[in-house]
Design a protein that fits this description.
homodimer, Enolase-like, domain 1, 2 domains, nine-stranded mixed sheet, three-stranded antiparallel sheet, 14% strand, metal-binding (chains A, B)
């Protein structure tokens, strides 16, 4: 039976800051990066890939933490690891010396997300099914054993989680059939980066409408006059009926957020995303109390550090759109508990995506949420940003503004060998070329 | 004028797990460690030392992040850095690529704490006064410019912070005189580690009373029968009038915490410390609502990740004793805002200490809080654990259960050269010896 023999780690970075793609009120020079690992086995046909997403500097710090965590997997029997990823997760979580650096937050937590993403990719490849199918077909008792329900005892018991999953099973086949036909609705952030000109903004909004999108999201939080003008342009292009969302990327103080959103409300907004510190549960509640009166919801979670933060956002009724991040929460083990808590609170999960490979992982997560946890799609929409997909062996597909149901085995996390060779930092061929140009 | 020329980094670890010192419900094998740095200048008489505290594995990850942050200081004019440590703090905080790994939490935040601790040590050495005096004698306007008030706009404005500091100035001299005489009261955790035998617990409690302590803290959260027995022993030794506190180190779920503390309340407890996840503001509020009925307060903060968490703990009235950590909050720049918010909420700040060097830093912080921010000492007590002080050039002093007012220039953060040579991981002379013994 195959065994995990080695861990391959790659510091992968793209010079996205050169194009202003990914520019917002806080992140002005994002170089989209992945702290990437591959769990290699002695069976050359079987392996698992995973990563966490960063925006450049610090990617190497995540890799160092990943190396410490992943080392615990070398020599493990693949079948055993794949049978109980929750056991692996707990071993990584229960290293009390590393726990001190969090707990459950920051670099060590991002590293756990990367390693567990690779373990789930391995498990799905081992079962020869797409990850969404592996999860949906697991016996609920077994699935719940894999989950991290610690510190959630006041809102979600294991028994309750099992019952919630059981309740949805009769609907699985119909939902899978529906998803194979229509996919899962997504929205695009591509037109709305802060660094884009008004003309480019208008053009990209028009293109998004042509591609069938029902939602457009714009970055805000710079000069108020710019926000006002850019939203006016977007609304005039997409018309009165399509959904418009705004994203402040944490730039505002709580009172400032209330004031700034109030001033933009007349454009007709579905949500304000990340109005202030991602840690500020009570602040989000105060903002929600104000903006909801204008029919605007509060969206947050892309920087939601762990399940305890999401628990509180839901307990405090501080969030309307739950934006889990596939590389910040510690993979399936921590994500499904959040899906279950959101379902219990009747709040839609609208995952954060974009970056490097987040859309690939999200194309599985939205299917899991719809099929096995939350049911009806109404009101749900997942982010999609159309860049860097060409670097993935099994890229996500979007058609008519919807994520297509993945069909290939795994978690879609594998990056092409030529990409790793070209964009590995600092010695990938493309990075070397760039330095030669600069020094020329 | 002197310039910062080099950054010296040391991975310092002590084998404290061998003695069970530091053993609690979650941290069973703590090897007390410091990710330590020294800012060297071209003026050989001037330097600054700082560190963050960890419990072993992962110390090297903090050092890697410290190296990235501290590199920004090389070549800087010392006078300029010392005139405006807040400018340096903001430069470290505003690296948007590194910010993605938090923001303001985990490894990168611990690293910022270490670097800023060294900057403040340098500033106090440059001014040739103890840090507490440098801070207390700063013009309030200037001091507030050094503080990180971001995301606190809904509770504390800069103007309000200045006014609060101004209000205390007439009392500075009297308070300094009082502290020089009596010091600042502390309690000891030394008797209460979970790994100690009943006899050792009883003996250490007796010794603590002989040394003049008015408070004893015990670790709890293991077998309920053990907690009951050990608290009985401690109470019988210290008598009915001395204060007894318990510390669960985050081991419980919220409902479990309420039940377990209820069962121990008859021993007469001042506080329950870290009953559950340090991130769970609303959970702490629920626990407080219950235990306060038995006269027990909630203490938390040693894992309080940043000022936004403390803001919410205070807003939600979820904490009775605010336990800031000198190496987890990002040094003076983030700590004083928490002192000011606690003062505004009328909650005493009782800093966490112990580990490596936390007591040394706390011996300055409690003086700053008392002299310049909070005033009356009544109800305040700081932690003291009597180990590893011999490794410091300017160790803190405790007399009759009180921290003595520091008199030497700096932040007391400098570690002896011989200690660095002996306990640097993995190649310090003492670690090499240990490996030789093990392999012999």
């Amino acid at each position: 039976m195959p065994v995990i023999t080695t861990i391959e780690l790659v510091d992968l970075r793209f010079p996205t800051s050169e194009s202003n793609a990914g520019s917002d009120a806080v992140n002005k020079d994002a170089d989209y990066s992945a702290a990437y690992l591959r769990l290699a086995t002695d069976d050359s046909t079987l392996y698992g890939c995973g990563f966490t997403f960063t925006i450049g500097r610090g990617n190497e710090i995540c890799l160092q933490a990943m190396e410490v965590l992943a080392a615990k997997l070398v020599g493990r029997d693949v079948a055993q690891v794949c049978r109980a990823p929750g056991t692996v997760y707990r071993e990584l979580a229960e290293d009390s010396q590393l726990r001190w650096l969090g707990p459950d937050k920051g670099v060590v937590h991002l590293a756990r997300a990367a390693v567990m993403n690779a373990v789930w990719d391995l498990a799905a490849r081992h079962a020869e099914v797409p990850l969404w199918r592996l999860i949906c077909e697991m016996d609920p008792e077994v699935l719940v054993e894999q989950l991290d329900l610690s510190y959630l005892g006041d809102v979600l018991s294991a028994g309750e989680a099992v019952a919630m999953l059981e309740e949805q099973r009769p609907f699985h086949q119909a939902r899978i059939a529906e998803l194979s036909e229509q996919g899962f609705p997504c929205y695009t952030t591509s037109p709305g980066w802060l660094g884009y000109s008004d003309d480019k903004l208008a053009r990209l909004c028009r293109e998004a409408m042509d591609e069938g999108y029902q939602h457009i999201k714009l970055k805000v939080g710079g000069d108020p006059a710019d926000d006002e003008r850019r939203l006016g342009i977007a609304r005039s292009v997409i018309g009165p009926d399509k959904m418009l969302m705004i994203d402040a990327n944490q730039i505002w103080e709580v009172p400032e957020a209330i004031e700034r959103v109030e001033a933009l409300a007349h454009h007709g907004l579905l949500w304000i995303e990340e109005p202030t510190s991602p840690d500020d549960v009570l602040g989000h509640r105060r903002i929600a109390d104000s903006v909801r009166q204008r029919g605007i919801g509060v969206a947050t979670g892309e920087h939601g550090m762990n399940r305890v933060l999401f628990k509180q956002l839901l307990q405090a009724d501080a969030v309307d759109f739950v934006q889990i991040d596939s590389c910040r929460l510690a993979s399936i083990n921590e994500i499904i508990p959040v899906l279950l808590m959101a379902k219990k609170s009747g709040k839609p999960v609208c995952p954060h995506a974009g970056g490097v490979g987040l859309c690939e992982l999200v194309s599985h997560l939205v299917m899991i949420d719809h099929i096995a946890v939350s049911g009806p799609v109404a009101g749900r929409v997942a982010e999609f940003v159309d860049h860097l997909h060409e670097h993935f062996v099994d890229p996500c597909h979007v058609s008519q503004g919807a994520y297509v149901l993945p069909t290939r085995p795994g978690y879609a996390a594998e990056i092409k060998a030529e990409t790793l060779a070209a964009w590995a930092w600092p010695d990938g061929t493309e990075w070397v070329k760039r330095r030669q140009v600069m020094t020329a």
